[in-house]
TrEMBL record:
This is Fatty acid omega-hydroxylase. GO terms for cellular component: membrane. It is found in: Membrane. It comes from the Eukaryota. It is a single-pass membrane protein. Keywords: Heme, Iron, Metal-binding, Monooxygenase, Oxidoreductase. It comes from Salvia splendens (Scarlet sage). Heme binds at residue 235. Its cofactor is heme.
Amino acid sequence: MPNIPCEKAFNDMIDALLYRHLLPEVVWRLQEWMGVGREKKLQEASRAFDEFIYPCVERSKDESNGFSMLASFKKEFQTDSSKFLRDTVLNLMFAGRDTTGATLTWFFWLIACNPSSEEKIRKEINGEDWRRRFGVEESRRLVYLHGALCETLRLYPPVALEHKAPARPDDLPCGKRIEGNARVVISFYSVGRMESVWGKDCLEFKPERWISPSGKIKHEASYKFPAFNAGPRTCLGKEMAFAQMKMVAAAILHRYRIKVVEGHVVSPRDSIILQMKNGLRVSLSKISN
């Protein structure tokens, strides 16, 4: 891959932000003030990102009459602020970048480790007519594949943790008192593996848990399954993400069997996005139709 400064800057920013979640604020604030450690890399990455994004924002101002996302934001919020538009682009890139790819990586690993689930998905896929275009509507009929993706998101949520801070003192449902501005870290990774939430088989990969007795997709409350956040702030791109993942997974599993390369070690990478360290090395065997 060629060296793309903006790409490297974005990766450095994501890595540094993980430690802001984990370290006490006074620690990373001191590092920020001193310009050392990961905070130094974050500052350098932020400058590199701005060198790329601000020219794009300025060009968008000349396209106010055209159809573009930034033009829509300018019209909706009635602002021409370059910083506002830069922050908007950064927010959208953080929300959508690598989450789908990371989920698919864990999905293919889990499928390779569970050949019976792989065959069930392939049987479901083969029930579709591949002679015509396979699109969003067709993907909605892949119930078992949907369940397998939900299981992947339960066990390996792309955003594994986040934290909240109440504006004023509050009481949690369990009765614990939380002071104002106290940081409450929520581990979505842990929630997906809790026996009290998912039962004794919580560590097993079981796409069937997402299928109702009638054979339809079984929906869980977002506070139980917070892979796309919860409540009124649920991810806007949820349905698009499922459609993308289903179409990619279906296209690959329809044509190939997947086997993890012998000796390949699978472990998570230190990042705010739960990516697989060093990627997933597999061998593909073409299926004869």
